[in-house]
Amino acid sequence: MKKTKNKPFWLYFIGVFLVLIALSAGIYAFFVAAVRPHQEAEKQAIKTAKEYVDFASVTDFQQYNGKEVFYTVFGKNDAGEQLMVAISKKHQGQVYIYKDDQGISARQAEAVAKKEGAHKVEQITFGIVNGSAIWEVHADSAYYLIDFETGQFIKKEGL
Predict the structure, then answer these.
(1) pTM above 0.85, yes or no
(2) pLDDT in tens, 125-151
(3) Which of 27, 44, 58, 97 is the most exposed place for a label (fewest CB within 10 A)?
(4) Extents of the domains making up the chain
């Protein structure tokens, strides 16, 4: 009978370790590639918004995915006014500028949606529908559209 040599334990350990490193690198690369388009859209939207509004600071960025995609940049000017600049993805020159006091807040939109039957609110997004500013309240597998300027409930869209 031939005697086989057992490979040292450390060779197995190194092999498993290298496989884990390769898998981790692949997963990391996948997630970086998945996030990159959103980051690029955010950078471009902020750049475009700054062409229209003199922001002292940018406080938030949102993407509204309705019939048309809009990127909204939130920020404050030197006077401390909160501004929202909504930019069409499809038509880069289509830009809407609002001050927060021109309409209702996201929390007020949430309250309107709850009056209309929303329970567990997951997200509130600012967007533009047919040329009008809206808050989209995502709750309970449905979207509640609330008019930004009037605070009126527009409609509920189910999933």
Answers:
(1) no
(2) 999 999 999 999 999 889 999 999 999
(3) 27
(4) 35-158
